Fold this sequence. Notes:
CATH superfamily: Barstar-like
Structural class: alpha/beta
Strand order of the largest sheet: 1-4-3-2
Oligomer: single chain
Largest sheet: 4 strands, parallel
Helix content: 40-55%
CATH class: Alpha Beta
Amino acid sequence: MIQVFDQSPEGIQKAPHDPRILAAGYQVALREVAFSDVHDKDSLMLAMLRGLALTDNFGRNWDALYDVLTDPEARPARLGLLLCDFEHFRKRHPRLSGDLERVMLDAQRDAAGQGRQLWLLAEELESDPKSW
Length: 132
């Protein structure tokens, strides 16, 4: 079976089973970004700040996020973003998620142009809290 890290990153992909273990085995630095509590751009930028372990001087805008994702000084050459609860976020906030996707996909393309790899892996929660 081909693993996601066997291939070059391409768009937002479904996260594999046990992504943390797989990433470690492939020497991919994996950062988790939780979208469960994202309801606007401010909370989205806060989720990215936390997930990427950024400092408070992070600009919290699209350009700053792009810069952080493509900065070879700040990011490892093989980086994976584990986007937790991403599909639910997409459904709740289509416009905001569209803006985010454009930034992440641009960063992924530009990273590839620098000989770097940025995987975007959507991982869903096991159960939908709304169905409880």
